[in-house]
Amino acid sequence: MDGRPEAEAEYNPVVDEADDIRFRLETGFALDRLWGQTMGSPVGDTKEGALRSVTALLEQAGVAYALIGGVAVQMLTAEPRTTRDIDIALRTFAEVPTGALIAAGFQHVGRFAHSDNWVAPGTGPARERTPIQFAADEAAFARAVERAQVIDVGGLLVRLVSPEDLVLLKLAAAEEPARRASKRQHDLGDVLALLEEHPTLRSAVPDLDLRLKRIQERPMRLGPER
Fold first, then answer.
1. Selecting from 3.30.460, 3.60.70, 3.40.1130, 3.40.50, what CATH number does the domain 6-161 have?
2. Angle at the Cα of 129 from the Cα atoms of 84 and 78, rounded to 5 degrees
3. CB-CB contact of 88 with 50 (8 Å)
4. In 3-state terms, the chain is what percent helix, strand and coil (to 5)?
5. How many whole angstroms separate alpha carbon 48 and alpha carbon 33?
6. pTM score
7. Dihedrals phi, psi of 84, to nearest 5 degrees
8. Does the pLDDT value for residue 82 go beyond 90?
9. Residue 8 contacts by C-beta under 8 Å, 6 or more apart in sequence?
């Protein structure tokens, strides 16, 4: 005994944080399975399977990446939630392992202004399979990739975006002029949830309060903004 309370002696914030992240992702997978059962989706067509497949493929191809978007928010905030898409940041679109994805059964949907879109392999129709969206060719995405942390989720190694970079990416998305009002409000909610969970980020993000105020003050319009 060293005189410290037993709970204090055993506390390891790094381990505890990783355990929290694993628990949150596994909770999201459980919610996904319940949704799939409710909708009668094929048993094998799960987001968990898609995430395991695409991350393993990226590792095998030697492609650095960061898991971003709704799945990352789910892993970095306490409120149980799920999301349909898997969003992944790369340094450049040239790093999308197109040949390996096709060989593994992923289906290419198309390249858009800010993303290269795919759907995961599966037995169901493409519209019912997990969407995979790669984002790249911007400094913010490259920075997110460089600062990603590796998390072991039950043997699944995931390169997870840092909370600070995720806040910056969500703010940038909410500030996008063509962003739908509903999407903008969702991004804003994600930012606020991340700030509640990680309050030190308030001092780490430049002009945070001003940016939040500008987003909240933008007119609410239905459909894409012009």
1. 3.30.460
2. 20
3. no
4. 55, 15, 35
5. 9
6. 0.86
7. -80, -40
8. no
9. none
